[in-house]
Write a structure and sequence with these properties.
three-stranded antiparallel sheet; 25% strand; Glutaredoxin; alpha+beta; five-stranded mixed sheet
Length: 209
């Protein structure tokens, strides 16, 4: 048997073994069809109204402030805590005057479990100024699409629990309400603070003109 033929036979055997293994042991999680996907067009952002433990929260409530938006959920094992910790450290580095002009909103993509009361306990744990908000599945879908965020529930095999895969960007909304950019996951606190100060400075310049 030639070396080329031997390699072909080995490749076929390996592919067969892998296929049988996948059939015998399916992946640990499957995607539930309910998924919010970003639209094909560029994210437009815009106003929305969701619920906090203290009542309705609208983006326009914070006109004149820089708003940081993060889509996540309270049962998130690592991604959300990492992002919120970095944001909190950035907020702590701001002066009191700067902090007074910034609002961070944590939008839950898990309305089945994240009640407003649970969000009230979770979000301020990282920083007292962070507000957790939620809504119906359709409301969250709409906001996520307009901001270019995505999420998908992953049902865990053999368990009643589930996780939610989600976009891990922090969206930046300028004081005039425009979606002006986003920060990557695990951006260092100093980078977050620099981005905040950049837009606060631009807002100051615009107001003085």
């Amino acid at each position: 048997m030639s070396n080329r033929l031997l390699l072909v036979v080995i490749a076929v055997l390996v592919a067969t073994i892998v296929a049988l293994a996948l059939l015998w042991n399916p992946p640990a999680s499957t995607t539930v069809p309910h998924t919010a996907l970003p639209s094909a067009t560029a994210p437009t952002g815009g106003n929305f109204t969701l619920q906090s433990a203290s009542g309705p929260v609208s983006l326009t409530d914070y006109r004149g402030k820089l708003v940081l938006l993060y889509f996540g959920y309270t049962y998130c094992p690592d991604i959300c805590p990492t992002a919120l910790t970095a944001t909190a450290q950035a907020l702590n580095s701001l002066t009191p005057a700067e902090l007074a002009r910034v609002q961070t909103l944590f939008i839950s993509v898990d309305p089945e479990r994240d009640t407003p009361d649970r969000l009230k306990e979770y979000a301020p744990f990282f920083h007292p100024s962070i507000i957790g908000i939620t809504g119906t599945a359709s409301q969250i879908d709409d906001v996520a699409r307009r901001y270019g965020a995505s999420y998908a529930k992953q049902q865990l095999a053999g368990a009643a629990n589930y996780v939610v895969d989600h976009t891990s960007l922090t969206y930046v909304v300028a004081p005039d309400g425009r979606l002006v950019g986003s920060l990557p996951h695990a951006a260092p606190p100093e980078k977050v603070a620099a981005e905040v100060r950049k837009w606060l400075s631009q807002s100051n310049q615009g107001a003085s003109q």
